[in-house]
Specification:
mainly beta, 8-stranded antiparallel β-sheet, extended
Length: about 170
């Protein structure tokens, strides 16, 4: 018996290679990897003085891990424009950062095999903390040159307005 609400015949989970990333209302070109959305809640151990050797565990502060984004090197300046809002070499002393708009909400969409949006997450108040414009270059290699952007964030949540799509039938 399927647990999927819309597609009762679906038994397979979604694949991890069909996704899109969007910020400023536009999809970001060429993204080939998005690191995991991870949140961790600190554990506070507590024990009353008169209690037996058994302690209690309480939730503490929650943190959201940075998210790594990778894409092939191209002439698209989207990563660099954002990084330069955080700190620009061309900035005047004391005004190297664009405090007004260096944070962005980012939307991560997971697609099904038919290319329909199956679920989406909104990642809040992101800003780039690390940018790798070019990887190690190797004349003896045959790999694609990859850019890497690390996004700090203040939390993410699933966009519940995105529901499981009715998948097309090709009968």
């Amino acid at each position: 018996m399927s647990q999927f609400t819309v597609n009762a015949a679906r038994v397979d989970p979604y694949k991890n290679f069909k996704f899109r990333l969007k910020w400023d209302g536009r999809y970001v070109a060429g993204v080939s990897l998005v690191g995991p959305l991870r949140r961790t809640t600190e554990v506070i151990e507590y024990r009353e003085g008169g209690s037996p050797s058994l302690g209690r565990k309480l939730p503490g502060a929650t943190t959201f891990a940075p998210i790594v984004i990778e894409r092939g090197v191209s002439h698209d300046l989207e990563f660099e424009r954002w990084v330069n809002k955080v700190w620009s070499l061309d900035g005047v002393a004391g005004v190297e950062s664009s405090l007004k708009d260096f944070r962005k909400d980012v939307v991560l969409e997971l697609l099904n095999e038919a290319g329909q949006v199956a679920m989406a997450y909104v990642i809040r108040r992101c800003w780039p903390s690390c940018f790798e414009a070019l990887p190690t270059l190797d004349a003896n290699g045959s790999a694609v040159a990859i850019q890497r952007l690390v996004l700090e964030n203040e939390g993410w949540q699933r966009d519940l307005s995105v529901t499981e799509p009715a998948e097309p039938s090709y009968d």
